[in-house]
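As a warm-up, study this chain.
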Amino acid sequence: MSEQLIIGNASHLYAVQEGWGQLPASIQYGYTHGIVVDDEDRVYVHHTGKESVVVFDKNGTFLTSWGSEFEGGAHGFYLHRDPDGQQYLYFADTKRSMIVKTTLTGEVLLRITPPDRPDLYDAERKYVPTDVCVAPNGDIYVADGYGQSYVHHYNAEGTYIRSWGGKGSEPGKLNSPHGISINLRGEVPEIYIADRSNNRIQVFTLEGEHVRFVEHNLDLPCSFYFFGDEVYLPDLHSRVTILDANDRLITHLGEDQQAYKQQGWPNLPKSYYRADRFSSPHGICVDSGGNVYLAEWISDGRVTKLVRQR
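Now compare it with the structure written out below.
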């Protein structure tokens, strides 16, 4: 029996579970982008292939798949729990420039089309949403990460409220706001934005006012997952970063500072990949037991489970 691969530090130690989440022969991953976990620890993987949502139980047993309408456009993926306990999925589709809300089984409940802002968008200035999140009151926030670097704010019914941002590096400006999420760890909810090409997190109020930067220990941050007092971030440059309640570094997981420097990255020869090293982390989530699930931006997909040891 092979020796178990362990990564992490003294407070956050994980065993790498190789081969987790086996697909049936009828399904092949495209680029794996987003990954979320529901209240029963079912794991939903969002990828660019035909059945773009694949669902597993926590042991990696395939349960179901759906989402053909998102083929080719899979990107941002967010699970929101309403105050009444209902859970919903939100999709940011880069191919169709659309935000979609569904049930956990794929029933479409809401579609949000591009904002009516001719001052921001036209034939040359594209709108390409990369992520979406939902505030406690149901308001929806969309990050135009591959378009004009704006954030758009809607109410729960999809009615447009406001926008802010635009490309730049000064406070309130963004450069590829790739990921967006709601921080509920403090007294007042905040919006966290993975300001990826600026290599930082930018924090805003729910009304879009700049609060602060988090600028240390990040290397192209992609998205967020809040678990307890901690925040888990996939750094596209080949590692997972965990920050504490004050956004200070706890540890990096699976760091490989050579991966993103390889010719052809992110689609490297299969011989390059190692189970305990990451190449292009893109989406992350954490289940009720503290186990981490990571999706990497690789053409035929890569999903890793890290089993919490302590």
